[in-house]
Amino acid sequence: MTSFVRPLAPASAADGIGQPLRRKEDQRLVTGAGRFTDDVNLPAQAYAAFVRSPHAHARIRGIDTKDARATPGVVAILTGADADADGLKRVPHHPVPTNPHEVPLRSRDGSEFFLAPHPPLPGDRARFVGTPVAMVIADTAAIARDAAARIVVDYEPLPVVVTAEDASRDGAPRVWDEAKSNVCVDSHAGDAAAVDAAFRRAAHVVRLETRINRVTGVPMEPRAAVAVHQDGRTTLYAGSGGVQRGRSELAGVLGVPEDALRVIAHDVGGNYGTRNSSFPEFSLVAWAARKLGRPVKWTCDRHEAMLTDYMARDLVSHAELALDADGRFLALRAVNTSNVGAHTVSFIPLAKGIGVSSSVYDIPASSMHGRAVLTNTAPTCPYRSAGRPEVMFVIERLIDLAARRHGFDRVALRRRNLIPGAAMPYRNALGLVYDSGDYAATQDRVVALADWAGFEARRAEARRRGRYRGIGLANYIELNTGVPRERAEITVRPEGAIDVVIGTLSSGQGHETSFAQLMVEWFGVAPAQVRVLTGDTDVATVGGGSHSGRSMRMAGVVMAKAADEIVARGRRVAAWRLEAAAADIEFQRGRFVVKGTEHGLSLFDVAAAGLRDDAPDDLRGPLAGVGDETMSQPSYPFGSAVCEVEVDPETGDVAIVRYTTVDDCGRAVNPLILHGQTHGGIVAGVGQALWELCHYDPETGQLQSASFMDYALPRADQFPPLVTEISEVPSTTNPLGLRGGGEGGTTPALASVVNAIVDALTELGVEHVEMPATPARVWQAIQDARRR
Q1: What pLDDT is recorded for position 100?
Q2: How far apart are CA 546 and CA 541, in angstroms?
Q3: Which residue ranges make up each domain of the chain?
Q4: If both were cysteines, with which of 229, 562, 605, 741 could 601 make a disulfide (CB 3.0 to 4.6 Å apart)?
Q5: d(Cα 392, Cα 319) in Å, to the nearest integer?
Q6: Could you give the C-alpha distances from 141 to 145, 545, 707, 752, in angstroms and in order?
Q7: In Å, how far are 186, 219, 372, 382, 515 from 107, measured between CA atoms?
Q8: Buried b / exposed e across 110-142, counting CB within 10 Å, b at 16+?
Q9: Is 700 within 8 Å of 540 (Cβ atoms)?
Q10: What is the pLDDT of residue 646?
Q11: Helices 439-449, 410-417: crossing angle, 10 deg rounding
Q12: Alpha-helix residue ranges (DSSP H) falling in 231-314
């Protein structure tokens, strides 16, 4: 990566770096002027509907389409046989992490991982409820749905497994006959011998067996796709995490060159990972448009989305923590088993979780056994802080258990074991190198901000009202990596605009505002003069999209490089026009001036000068710059959260009454947006801790939470005002000092909530509560404790 350093001083521009500028895209979005995929309509388009398997595992013996084909308005019916005949390839997921700075997944016996394929329209078997088995194309969406209902599929139901525990047992029904078993990853990281020795000399050992519940992202905008094929080229409109990845994976399915495809995403209504990987329907819509010579549109309904959106979490962990008599952590070991569903979309949550399983604590030895298991459920994928909330939950629950069982103060025990700032850069027991951070300061600040010292008075007041009040603390660290290459192309237009072409893609993060603030800071322009151009592979040809906290962290670097090129070129153009030496030209707040004088030209005047016919050959052309960098170095955001709850012992109802966080992002470009990101992250994490669960019937594999009647989402009225604060310890591995900033709210939330619930109920004898901590589950924990 090119080496250059930007100053980390406070912003000098009124709306530049560090300023809480309101998002300029909100006016468009809240007034209905946004353009999402379903808003795209093309002349003469047809509509698609899918026939989906009602069985979690079944052989497809035949498909009768006669009645459906006779329906007026039906254009075509396509099945797996048609897909095979046309040579459609499998969806090219890339499940194995490749970043050299992460802990690699390696099979314990040296064998290859089994990568369960993902045919977009299988002709042989359905392997989870909702698998598409036929596609109807019709003149209207209603006709397509009606015709789909007339298709009769002859299924032969097969045995089903839906949990990792059941699927990994000897003799369990196999999801894929081609695999030796449903265990597709069996890996190990760390020093098992050193860990065993540490446990033998430990004064205290605590154990935890837990399952982190499966959830789904539920973006406000359901998936949709519109495709058209004309002049030998296919254009796909589809919201995602990144159009460049979408184009690459679409090319893989269709078996065509990438330059034969164009992928466009306008506004994207929510993501956080669930939309980053390719979905079969996108490829199928593009295939149908190419096959029929007519635009084809498909919009997912909410029930389809609940069945077939990629899900997340679903980790079983058996973990142990060893401590000496003074409470020093000696070693950590665990077996983490990830339920990856029927098709291997990603092992990244498993791998990343293992890498940072020791969190911000100085744990000298670690031994982590990681397994991934195939089941008859929807695939799982990286979702908001992939893999990290799960392992933070485990380590923070272990610490609370150690404190309560062996007489340590929960806050002091954590502080005693935090990695000191003087140890930075710090290599954890699995080899990851944390670049910088002040973990003790963050914990101290959140404890003070949450008024931990005054909690017992609040607990006593709640008891007088018949409520049990508890407080929980959780620290966390992030591991942000992502696609390593990013590119920015910046052009200064003479008419007074700056165009920024960038390969990332916003799904609500406020890129139009925060990216503009960098231009404000570096060029001295107004935010309204900056246009961020993204979401079109014909415009932004290169880029990694938005995931793993990479957008600002990587886009900022390449934009800075492009900006430096513009200033360097602008000095030469200004020197020509001002009849001065280039060395005597300096750039200040939007103007190129001759040093020691007021003689100068504005940025836009210089852009216009470069387009003059009489410009020298080496200066003629647009005032533009390009930044194109490959950055594989991880980022390690960190922080702390404190949650307070009140529990009704008669009903088990849990109310969040206070919530406080301190999150370090390295450097805050727009604090207002970061606070908003944190608020959303907190709600996502609390939602998982208390309410959300994708529940499959273990006998039939039916998803029993496939509607909003059954899948409980958090609501605004269930939260108090959230107290959030930003810490800024610059990253030493990023030229701008940036870390990721969009995931920290979620990462400690699971642990802080459950720690608070257990604290509230400790006097009743409750030691642990599984997630989601629903009223029924909390009430049962109270009853079980009372019987002991």
Answers
A1: 87
A2: 15
A3: 26-34+484-630, 42-158+223-295, 348-481+633-787
A4: 605
A5: 12
A6: 6, 31, 21, 46
A7: 5, 35, 11, 21, 42
A8: eeebbbbebbbbbbebbbbbbbbbbbbbbbeee
A9: no
A10: 98
A11: 160
A12: 243-254, 280-292, 302-308
Joined tokens for residue 533: 């151009």
Q: What architecture is domain 348-481+633-787?
A: 2-Layer Sandwich (3.30)
CA 82 to chain centre: 35
Q: Are strands 132-138 and 46-52 parallel, antiparallel or unpaired?
A: antiparallel
Q: Which two tokens stand for residue 735?
A: 């030229």
The CATH number for 42-158+223-295, chosen from 3.90.1170.50, 3.40.50.970, 3.30.450.70, 3.40.50.2300, is 3.90.1170.50
pLDDT at site 7: 41
Q: Tell me how long the chain is.
A: 788
Taking the C-alpha atoms of residue 529 and residue 491, their distance in angstroms, rounded to an integer, is 12
Q: Which residues of the chain have pLDDT under 50?
A: 1-12
- Spatial CB neighbours of 456, under 8 Å, sequence gap ≥ 6: none
What are the angstrom distances between the C-alpha of 515 and each of 77, 562, 741?
45, 13, 14
Cα 776 from Cα 544, distance rounded (Å)? 43
What local confidence, expressed as pLDDT, does residue 10 receive? Answer: 39
Retrieve residue 9's tokens.
Answer: 């001083």
Query: What is the DSSP secondary-structure string of 250-276?
Result: HHHHHT--GGGEEEE-------TTTTT
The answer to whether the beta carbons of residues 775 and 492 sit under 8 Å apart is no
Running DSSP on this structure, what letter comes out for residue 55? Answer: S
* Residues contacting residue 85 through CB under 8 Å, at least 6 positions apart: none
Q: Is residue 736 within 8 Å of residue 556, measured between CB atoms?
A: yes
Q: What are phi and psi of 282, to 5 degrees?
A: -65, -45
SS3 for 703?
strand
Pairing of strands 311-323, 296-299: unpaired
CB 578 within 8 A of CB 498: no
What's the mean per-residue pLDDT of the chain?
Answer: 96
Phi, psi values for residue 648, rounded to 5°: -85, 110
Element (H, E) at 412: helix 410-417
How far from 643 is each of 276, 318, 687, 742, CA to CA, in Å? Answer: 31, 25, 13, 19
For the record, the structure tokens of 74 come out as 């039906």
